[in-house]
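Q: Got a minute? One more chain.
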Amino acid sequence: MAVGLKAMPPLGAIAGVRLGTVAAGIRKADRRDLVVILCDPGTTAATVFTQSHFAAAPVVVAKAHWRHSEPRALIINTGYANAATGEAGLDDARACCEAVARALSCRADEVLPFSTGVIGERLPVAAVIAGIPAAVGAACEDGWADAAHGIMTTDTVPKGATREILMGGKPIRITGIAKGSGMIHPNMATMLAFVATDLEAARPVLQAALAQVVKTTFNAISVDGDTSTNDALVVLATGRSGVRLTAEGPAFMQFCEALREVCAELAQAIVRDGEGATKFVRVEISGAKSDEEARIVADTIATSPLVKTALFASDPNWGRILMAVGRAPIAIDDPDRVTVSLNGVRVFGHGTVDPDYREEAGQQALAAADITIGVHLGQGTGQAVLYTCDFSYDYVRINGSYRT
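A: Always. Here it is, folded:
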């Protein structure tokens, strides 16, 4: 059940991008499972991919195609990840690209493939290829909502976001969709996400904006500490607005902020829809020697099963948080300077429980659906924020029966 997640807003169309979604019967009948995203000529793309050593076949192919060409199309299937499938998996991913290329009369290396689902099983290429003509035929600029449904796996709700800003007196729009619920942890952007804007931007400029934005959005979330083999984030810029983005100045920062808002909304929606999640948790670290050390501490807390199960039980067992801080691989010069709070209720400081702390206040703090764990390390000015969720019985149930 998604924690405090509002219904997906109406998603604004992006001139130059059309999306088509169909039920191709890839794994389950009568389920939307195949999406194509078609781009006008001249569209540029920025990308970020998984850091996994076992990157899936579509990731390998998409990276190779992106290095040589700007995309004319993206193809996304659910049900099968096409990961750990060897040379046959690479052939399958390429065959899907070739089928899209035939439908569009473009080159195969102008198509980027993406897959999500079960690892280690061959992609039913015949079903995918058979669904491509219908998906291309259904493509329209208003196809974002259907596509958000079509890329879901264990997600309980579709995820989308849109923003519109004025640049140079002209309206600029950014729209994106994402999928993700489990196997989520920052080491790129553990999920699939597709974002588009009608701004004109050269690839290096767009890539610079994405690199800046991903750090505090998709790279700042964790559901279970596991990084997927198939993670990918693509930002497309069609140039149809007539406004060109440059690599510096106020306009660049304005665009980065709008892109950050879209990506943050999508990333946090993934955490709120975490498998079995009942709590949305902001881990806020301050007073570290550096931002990197703050991030390490946040990551240790966010991935601790003991912390996450206590959150599920609304148990203010702050000792588990202190344990996580204590085992984080950084040096803490003076532990007595460390303070811990739960939704603003200070529970620990000066080496012991806060003298004003009462268990009832801690229980009330953790009874909320949205929780902030605050830790001040007392060592410097470094800070970091990470978004995570709790571990519930349903997380075990969902993942214990994932393939059945």
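A: The chain has a mean pLDDT of 93.
Q: Perfect, thanks.
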